[in-house]
Amino acid sequence: MKYVDEFRSAKAAEVYFRLIKRTITKPHVIMEICGGQTHTIMKYGIEEMLPKELTIVHGPGCPVCVTPLEMIDKALAIASLDDVIFTSFGDMLRVRGSKDDLLSMKAGGHDVRIVFSPLDAVNIAAMNKDKKVVFFAVGFETTAPANAMAVIEAKRRGLKNFSILCSHVLVPPAIEALLSNRGTRIQAFLAAGHVCTVMGYEEYIPLCEKYKTPIVVTGFEPVDILQGIYMAVKQLEEEQYKVENQYGRVVSKEGNIAAKELLKDVFNIVDRKWRGIGTIPQSGFRLKDFYSEFDAEKVFGLEGKTYSEDPRFRGDDNESKCIAGEVLQGLKKPSACSAYGSLCTPEHPLGAPMVSSEGVCAAYFHYKKREGAAG
Amino acid sequence: MSEEKIDIHNSMTCPLPISDYKKVLLAHGGGGNLSHQLIQKMFFSQFSNSFLNEEHDGAVIPVKEGRIAFSTDSYVVHPIFFPGGNIGELAVNGTVNDLAMCGAKPLFISAGFIIEEGLPMEELWQIVLSMRKAAEAAGVQIVTGDTKVVDNGKGDKIFINTSGIGLIAPGINISPKNCSEGDIIILSGRIADHGIAIMSAREGIEFETQIVSDTAPLNSLVEVMLNTSRNIHVLRDPTRGGLASALNEIAMTSGKSIIIEENNIPIAEEVKGACEILGFDPLYIANEGKLVAFVAETDAEKVLNAMRSHPLGKESVIIGKVAAGNTGSVVMKTSIGSTRIVDMLSGEQLPRIC
Amino acid sequence: MCLSIPGQVVSIDETVPELKMGKVDFAGIRKDVCLQWLEDVKVGDYVLVHVGFALSKVDEKEALSTIEMFKEMEGLIDERKE
Hints:
The structure holds 3 protein chains of 3 kinds. Helices cover 38% and strands 17% of the residues of chain A. The model of chain A is unreliable at 308-318 and 371-375 (pLDDT under 50). In chain A, strands 2-1-7-8-9 form a 5-stranded parallel β-sheet. Chain A has a 4-stranded parallel β-sheet with strand order 4-3-5-6, sandwiched between helices. In chain A, strands 10-11 form a two-stranded antiparallel ribbon. The longest helix of chain A is centred in the middle third of the chain and has 16 residues, at 222-237. Chain A is globular. Chain A is α/β, with parallel strands linked by helices. By secondary structure, chain B is α+β, with helices and mostly antiparallel strands. Chain B has a 7-stranded mixed β-sheet, with helices on both faces. A 4-stranded mixed β-sheet of chain B has the order 1-6-4-5. Chain B is globular and about 65 Å long. Mean pLDDT of chain B is 90; it is low at 1-16. By secondary structure, chain C is α+β, with helices and mostly antiparallel strands. Chain C is elongated and about 60 Å long. Chain A binds chain C through residues 1-4, 6, 9, 11-12, 14-15, 18, 34-36, 61-63, 89, 116-120, 139-140, 142-143, 145-146, 149, 152-153, 156, 192, 194-195, 197-198, 220, 223, 248-252, 256, 258-259, 262, 358, and chain C through 1-6, 8, 18-19, 26-27, 34, 36-39, 46, 48, 50-53, 55-60, 62-63, 66-67, 70, 73-74, 77.
């Protein structure tokens, strides 16, 4: 595939492995933010090939993993209604709420459908006027414009039976939350390349300067990640801090202006709870009042329903052994969890990062060498 | 339910034998007149052979001394018609292939149908025709069967079970337990075509593609291979769960360590594109006309050449080997030169956006 | 987050001005994609697609110069091996 295969080249990868090895002289800790980047690092066994001085930690860049428990419970409540067609991206189907998950609801006969694009959900609404069609709008800034477009399109078509359950999260506030944590050991970030395709990277400059932390906008193919890591290591070795763009073939400083305008038109920025981390101020999107007829929380009367601040619901889920919060903040690796691989596996997960295929625990489990494996 | 009279004379000549009935009814599975006519006009007319024509409760087959391979599989694929085939030929080829993977010559197949009331007769006819053609192509006979019809809503158009028996020639011993250190792993062609063809026909995931299912009977390919070498230790067709699952099962059963090379695994460009869009890993996607063979190192090259001389093995390639050690797992050398574990699939692959 | 793939625009449909659509080709697979946020997109352009929407055009000049740079660096490694 053009503009994909070239960034999976073994030779180019070797170039960057060598450059990193040659450049690094002391230990560094770099966090990659995005679940897609975690996936690539695991899938291509990149960590094992990097010098020991370099520690890559994985951040909360899995919107599925950080979707608050109560939001999933709201989704399940809506999906359980007879006159509802509940639509979602595939990623969300296996994540458990307090008791159940969307896949089990589907198996139980409720109309839960996987869609590829939020526009598919709008089409379903147009073809099923007797049903209420709800779309589970989860994701970072990359997906938000698409979800905004779905709302605009539904309005344009005059649909009265479509709404979105909005659980969007924003990256820069999460980076600020992580960096402002006293105990943080993160020295540089690989910023999520596709988020920046939409948003550009201007908003990272003040963060970089405030915390004196290098930030490299990075793509998703293995050579992209290696090049991004190299650029971060080089800055750290030279004791610099600036925002650099590794992913120049699709990311510009100002991003996609039309998409950003759309976000401003449709959403307000609000405080948002991140499962496993807690509430991060100004870190989520909510539909503006003008579009309230498309806000599923309003349509189904679920606004204001919260759960008490039970420590279990901060991401330490149903079993006290789950350390999802610490893992998502890069404080611990999945393999440091006492339940990892024994009590907690993809077949019987204790927390969201093991359920979601993008989750770092699941990625570790599927791709990480386990003891005794040949290789 | 009242039974209507059939115009038998018309049904003898028209390509659709039971033209008075556009859809399958409950009575067609009830054991009465309509059942009898469906079986006679539809199944018997197409699958006709000396065993079936006895019209007994079961087929009586004379056996030579030796070993018989016996296999069963049920087919519930949705949609039932997909690019490159339908559920009928899938059902025949699938059981033929399971027998071939035992090193057997497939001979006789049974076919059990569970039909949902309301299935258009024309669709059933197309499926039966395909099964006849598939059986002929594979050189097997369908010698016994069963038909049931369930209420509308209690099935998914049609489910088919096929079971089969085949004869294993003396001296042939194919089993995952025979997997040995040093064995070379040969794959007969590109992977993931079938799964992607099915995906492309499913609602909600439509995309335009030229990819068709690779469903095919592999017994003649296996015969060529077995005539070339008696040092073929394991054969497996990587169906549900794909290549990764098949290799993991062999590794776990034998307790051996398998290593494969990503760059050697053939995948059609379009299939790669589809997997990228859907977020699927082609290693876990179903195939219906491919096999992997574990061959002693000494015979690997000649088996590979023999496979390549057969139409179903033209793109055969060595993808890996059985390494030293007893991990019972599979690792892969990636396209960038690192290695990683290839795990068993957990649950169904769901399309992802992350 | 977030799975996005580059593909080539093969046709554009502006029947609905508020929802510019197009067919995008990914190694032979074709899918309908919304091109609304790319004002000057043309047939033949490569675009990055996420959940059925084109997020940006691929800057081919930039991509090719990066790929060229890789090749030069790979060449240096090969020379050193000899």
